[in-house]
Amino acid sequence: MDRPAWAPPEVDLDRPSPARIYDYMLGGLHNFAVDRQMAEQVIAVAPEVRLAAHANRGFLRRAVEYLAGAGIRQFLDLGSGIPTVGNVHEAARSVAPDARVVYVDVDPVAVAHSRAIVAEDDQVTVVQADVRDVESVLAMPELHDALDLKEPVAVLLVAVLHFIPDSDAPATMITKLMDAVVPGSYLALSQVTTPPQTLTPEQQAAAERYTKANPVAMRTHDEIAGFFAGLELVDPGLVDPARWRADDDKVGGMVSSFAGVARKP
Ligand SMILES: C[S@@+](CC[C@H](N)C(=O)[O-])C[C@H]1O[C@@H](n2cnc3c(N)ncnc32)[C@H](O)[C@@H]1O
Question: Is 168's C-beta closer than 6 angstroms to any atom of ligand 1?
Answer without folding.
Answer: no
